[in-house]
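Narrative summary of target 7.
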Amino acid sequence: MRPSDADILIGALTIHGEARGCTQPGRTAIAHCIINRAKARKWWGKGTAGYADHTIAAVCLKPWQFSCWNPNDPNQILLKTLQEQYRAAIQKPTCRAALKALIDALDGYEPDQTGGATHYLTTNLHKSARCPAWAKGNNNFVEIGSHRFFSGIA
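Modeled conformation, tokenized:
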């Protein structure tokens, strides 16, 4: 997979928004999940306005797939500001850590510890009444930090 500049920027911002409080292995696991989605060539990578299908950017910006980009999520405003001011954003240690996680995953420096996961959620959400239908009762996951990673989700 040869990512574009937009893929790198959107991918790193997504990791920043989704895993800002995580350890580096947690960020890298989310990076692999994003990459696995792009490689899977499923519906979640198609039809994102302004981006080629099955790219990192298309997968990340597909509506309602990564909560940090949802209109009702407070992270969305932060990420859009960082996207517009990327030179300032890269000075933030958490943004650099997110970028490193994505590059290390893309380049194979950090192997995929998620088992090929295309979906994840927090451990707390998985245990809660708000758990999404696709994860309810699904105990086939890999736990990395505060997230659970699932493969084989349609």
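The chain has a mean pLDDT of 91.
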